[in-house]
């Protein structure tokens, strides 16, 4: 006969083999002779020793699958897109998730490749960067619809990286640098134009003030000459003699000023005693002749207008 303690030991071993623990956020799939019998929840569970077995454990936590997809854009640029998909198994569809898919990661990867290679070839490279959120939404929408049948729920799809060919990246950097240089040149040109305009305004203002100064100077000279003529007339010198005296005085003052500067160009004018009077007479004669010509022209013009 078998000793009692051996029987007790066997019973304890059988009971111990029938007990098992399921962790939180995990479900256990139980099979009996290879056939599905039940799904056990978290905590301490009991199965029939030697008959039932734990076929597998299914995690209900959110999982992430990273997939790198190589595809071509509309402008014939090959890019690598890193897609991150976050998914979980629905608690009420553990049976479908465990039995319907042999390798769920491969199945999800295949769907991701299919969606990306359907969306990206419709875009140029710049649009891929700008519309990566649209690509992610399309992946999540199509993948969610496809995987619900198998008990998987797609929480989020993200395009985490876009990596074009190295030569394309260098070309894009060169384009960006050229655009920045163009903008810098435009700003520099605007600054130069503003500087030139302001310089021209300053020069115009300077010329205006200079002209005003010269006009004021000539006005004061004319006033001084007028006063000088009045003084000479008061001394008994007629206007013509006074004008001749003033001209000859200015003539000698000019010669004196020229002689003070060794780099000045000297122009010799007639300086005999009658030179100033002759010069003044010539100037007066020229002015009178010019006035007569202008008056004659105005008369002829009036006659023509009457005709």
UniProtKB/TrEMBL annotation:
<keyword id="KW-0378">Hydrolase</keyword>
<dbReference type="Pfam" id="PF01145">
    <property type="entry name" value="Band_7"/>
</dbReference>
<keyword id="KW-0645">Protease</keyword>
<dbReference type="InterPro" id="IPR050710">
    <property type="entry name" value="Band7/mec-2_domain"/>
</dbReference>
<keyword id="KW-0472">Membrane</keyword>
<dbReference type="GO" id="GO:0008233">
    <property type="term" value="F:peptidase activity"/>
</dbReference>
<dbReference type="GO" id="GO:0006508">
    <property type="term" value="P:proteolysis"/>
</dbReference>
<dbReference type="GO" id="GO:0016020">
    <property type="term" value="C:membrane"/>
</dbReference>
<dbReference type="InterPro" id="IPR036013">
    <property type="entry name" value="Band_7/SPFH_dom_sf"/>
</dbReference>
<protein>
    <submittedName>
        <fullName>Regulator of protease activity HflC, stomatin/prohibitin superfamily</fullName>
    </submittedName>
</protein>
<keyword id="KW-1133">Transmembrane helix</keyword>
<feature type="transmembrane region" description="Helical">
    <location>
        <begin position="6"/>
        <end position="22"/>
    </location>
</feature>
<feature type="domain" description="Band 7">
    <location>
        <begin position="17"/>
        <end position="176"/>
    </location>
</feature>
<dbReference type="InterPro" id="IPR001107">
    <property type="entry name" value="Band_7"/>
</dbReference>
<keyword id="KW-0812">Transmembrane</keyword>
